[in-house]
């Protein structure tokens, strides 16, 4: 992260190196010379960023700029410098790599052209706002934005996720026209890892269905939607019948495969992308049916019952006559009869209990 402290540290380094070094390579011309960079006459011994046409100042300033460029080029951060019009004045190799184009091509271009929507509009508005700030003296130092996640629309049209900190270089050190320094970090690897971990945190390892954690979140979200939009919401709890016996007879490994087959059935019968099947725990599953009604819920439960009854296990080496069934309890929230999502679960659970006690392989609707 390129903080103000780091910026100060960087300027200190530049001043020190400048004092100690007698000769540097000539100004490398990487900074696009603009009117502002060659006008004025206010060179100071500790103003490293802007060349001025003071008789003694040009060489010193160029040396300082050269030093700054060397530091910025060598630093293991992606850095670019833009002016108040958002035009790139300087970019280091790592920065150019993130934008996906050579520095020579990027310099002189508007940096927001490389931002994916909505970030492009957001940063353009930010600069417009900043430029229209009334207090000229304060606005430069007030501008410090990020770190914030952005998506770069790279030169080859691929997208790259990054985080960006944008700071205005302190006005006392850069002359009249402000420059902004952007520091970026490539988030591609981090994001891929995050998405993988997020998927693992929400998925039941055995069945690949949503896990209990994801179910709880989804139920709360669907519950809120149902209340806010006055739409019904149905829940089916599904419990495998005599599963202990299945495990005892065929072993836990085959028991696991049986649960996977049932999970597959649940995935197949979901009526829409909004509906969700999850593993509730052990040999219990649950289906959330948003914007649904008891008739639809019962139809889905019937589909589950039939398909589970039709499952075969010869592919995992079990006898052809091996059969399995599930008991199901349904509860539907329609007009405020349940006060909380937990109350809805309890109602479906009670209905499930009745389905079990009335013989199993049954569907019971909460009244
Ligand atoms: N193979 C396997 N078995 C599991 C898993 N989770 C729970 N079980 C088993 O599921 C069985 C549940 O047994 P019970 O609660 O007695 O229920 P049941 O035998 O299905 O009987 P009813 O529900 O009354 O029809 C237990 O034997 C658990 O070990 C799992 O992930 N894999």
From TrEMBL:
Residues 64-110 form the PAS domain. It catalyses: 2 GTP = 3',3'-c-di-GMP + 2 diphosphate. It comes from the Bacteria. Gene3D superfamilies: 3.30.70.270, PAS domain. PROSITE patterns: GGDEF, PAS. InterPro entries: Diguanyl_cycl_sensor_dom, Diguanylate_Cyclase, GGDEF_dom, Nucleotide_cyclase, PAS, PAS-like_dom_sf, Rev_trsase/Diguanyl_cyclase. Residues 231-367 form the GGDEF domain. Its EC number is 2.7.7.65. SMART domains: GGDEF (SM00267), PAS (SM00091). Pfam families: Diguanyl_cycl_sensor, GGDEF. This is diguanylate cyclase. The lineage of its organism: Bacteria, Pseudomonadati, Pseudomonadota, Gammaproteobacteria, Alteromonadales.
């Amino acid at each position: 992260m390129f903080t103000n402290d780091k910026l100060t540290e960087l300027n200190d380094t530049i001043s020190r190196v400048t004092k100690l070094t007698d000769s540097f390579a000539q100004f490398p011309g990487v900074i696009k010379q603009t009117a502002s960079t060659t006008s004025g006459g206010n060179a100071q011994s500790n103003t490293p960023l802007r060349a001025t046409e003071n008789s003694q100042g040009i060489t010193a300033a160029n040396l300082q700029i050269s030093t700054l460029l060397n530091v910025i080029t060598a630093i293991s951060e992606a850095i670019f410098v833009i002016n108040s019009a958002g035009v790139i004045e300087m970019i280091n190799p790592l920065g150019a790599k993130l934008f996906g184009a050579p520095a020579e091509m990027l310099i002189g271009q508007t940096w927001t052209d490389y931002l994916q929507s909505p970030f492009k509009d957001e940063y353009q508005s930010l600069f417009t706002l900043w430029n229209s700030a009334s207090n000229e003296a304060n606005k430069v130092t007030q501008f410090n934005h990020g770190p914030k996640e952005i998506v770069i629309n790279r030169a080859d049209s691929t997208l790259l996720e990054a985080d960006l900190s944008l700071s205005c270089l302190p006005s006392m050190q850069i002359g009249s026209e402000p420059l902004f320094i952007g520091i970026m970090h490539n988030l591609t690897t981090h994001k891929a890892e995050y998405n993988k971990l997020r998927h693992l945190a929400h998925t039941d390892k055995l069945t690949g269905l949503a896990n209990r954690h994801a179910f709880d979140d989804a139920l709360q979200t669907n519950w809120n939607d149902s209340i806010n939009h006055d739409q019904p919401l149905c829940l089916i709890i599904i419990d495998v019948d005599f599963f202990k016996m299945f495990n005892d007879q065929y072993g836990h490994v085959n028991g696991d495969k049986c649960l996977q087959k049932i999970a597959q059935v649940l995935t197949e019968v979901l009526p829409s992308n909004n509906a969700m099947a999850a593993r509730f725990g052990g040999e219990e599953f649950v289906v959330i049916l948003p914007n649904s009604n008891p008739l639809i819920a019962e139809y889905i439960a019937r589909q589950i019952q039939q398909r589970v009854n039709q499952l075969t296990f010869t592919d995992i080496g079990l006898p052809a006559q091996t059969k399995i069934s599930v008991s199901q309890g349904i509860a539907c929230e329609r007009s405020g009869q349940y006060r909380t999502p937990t109350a809805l679960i309890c109602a479906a659970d009670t209905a499930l209990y009745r389905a079990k006690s009335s013989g199993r392989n049954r569907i019971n609707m909460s009244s």
